[in-house]
Amino acid sequence: MNKILVASYLLAHLLLTNIFAGEGGSPEFTGLKLIENSADSLFRNAKYYDAVTEYKRLLFFDPDKKNHVKYLVNIGDSYSFGKFYHKSLAYYNKALDLQIETSIETDISYRIYAVLLKIGDFTAAENLIADLEKKTVYGPAMDSLYYWRGWGNIYQYKWFEAAKEFNKISPGHELSRYCRGVNESLLSVELVKIMSFIIPGSGQIYSGNYFSGIASFGWTALWGYNMIDAFAENRIFDGLVIGDLLFLRFYRGNIQNAGRFAEEKNLNISENALLYLLSNYEGIKP
Amino acid sequence: MNPGLTFIFTKWKGSADLALRFWMLLLISFSSYYAQISAEDYFTPENRLRFADHLFADKDYLRAFYEYKEVISSGINDTAVFNAAYSLYKIGRYSEAIDYYTGLFINRELDYQAKIEFFRNLYLLNLPERFLYYSSQSLYSSGIEPYLLKRMIVYGDFIERPSSVDSTEFFQLFEPPLADSIRALYSESRSLTYKDPWRAAIYSAILPGAGKIYTGETGDGLTSLVVTGLLTYIAIDNLGAGHDFRGYLFGALAAYFYAGNIYGSFNSAMISNASVRINLKIKLGNFFRNNNFFLPLPEFPGYE
Fold first, then answer.
1. In the Cβ-directed half-sphere of A247, how many Cα atoms lie within 13 Å?
2. Cβ contacts (< 8 Å) between A241 and chain B: which residues?
3. In terms of domains, do A101 and A38 share one?
4. ipTM score of the complex?
5. Residues of A with CB below 8 A from B34's CB?
6. CB under 8 Å to A256, separation ≥6 — which residues?
7. Measured between beta carbons, which residues in chain A are less than 8 angstroms from residue B10?
8. Could you tell me if A194 and A143 lie in one domain?
9. Less CB within 10 Å around the terminal CB: N or C of chain A?
10. What are A200-225's pLDDT values in tens digits?
């Protein structure tokens, strides 16, 4: 019987404390915390549309401004993952407008830098990192600066410069080695042009365009022969017309083509190298 | 863990009957659940409406729409319905917007604005027959000034077939300053010059490149003249010198360029005409859109 009484007492006590914990405790805190947990979970699970909705709900309802930086940054990240880069920048800038610590400000600035790289606004990215450089004096922060500037160079396909920046962090940095490797695999556009200048078509063949190389050689040889033949037979006008309209057109085109093929090949190498890094590099990346 | 549950599971092991423990657990769980749901008051219709209005003002129309939709599902709120539809309009989901506006037609405070927006969205669906049909039905058009719909129809015709519009009736539908712009556009549509493709082809047949010059492509015309003339000269020169193969080769090239120049001139006139028509259509369409299809905007703040 005593046990039943004790149990009843405990039951009533527990019921009341639980109910009052809900109603009289801190409902705003509990409600907002639940929304925040939900938003964080959505964000972690890459459900960015819904995550943005919940973070915006928090921004609207949460009176405590100190949490707003996190919400704004996560909204910015979500938009960035969804490729809505301009919206992403707008939210990062809203976060920067709040009173925040320097370290957080720097972190957000690098996020902005990464978005600027993705949208190809390299001038703005350079200006931003130059501003950060003025404020940065100590070792680890400088490493971050070199690191992101290296990525900036990668996005601009300046592999040699990128390798130099990563090398400043530590000699033989893995990204430095990678960038150097990519740089070494690029063709020299000038060399390819000179090759085609000396032997028509050779530059194209060197850059892997065999058919174009053979065709260039054939056309230039054909019109060259015709031009010389015309001059040899004293048909000066024929020679000038063939030489100017056909031979020189093919010879000049052959040099330009060789340069264009080399540039295209370099672009292809750079694009693939960047894609490979973005998919396989496990460190921090834009 | 909840202290009540801790007690039941640890201190009270094997000392009371199962039924009692079961009921206690059930009640405690229920009370905990109640405590949680009583704290979550950010999803009430009122709060959702406030949040939706905030999103709407922030031009985040897709999210605003979904919040308004939740508000509507818990009870009809005319402003929420209107704003949900307006959000759909802003993100280009005109067909769905129309459905929402229709719900506000009978005995509702926003009846007039909803009908205006209904026709704006209907026009954007680009279904002229449906537009004509609904504009003749009083359920949809009653209360709207007839000239508003009439000028949308006439201006729509003007965009599609500028030459078919009766200018007297057309101008009467508009008042200054809109009327002045409409008159200017009308004059512009009448003063555009079109090129005759056959004339261009004949010109080029007589003198290579002349057709291209007629259609405004002077550079191309002169190039055609020089290339065709030069190839013809080389062909004749080679044939005269007894170089038959080269003569025929250049002759064939000259014929190819000559034929191409005639065909190109015909095409050039067609392209020029199409370009004139398309540019005019884009200009007229932009004017219509920039003036909100000559319909009034909702008369409360936040609409644009």
1. 17
2. 230, 234
3. yes
4. 0.72
5. 18-19, 22
6. none
7. none
8. no
9. N
10. 999 999 999 999 999 999 999 999 99
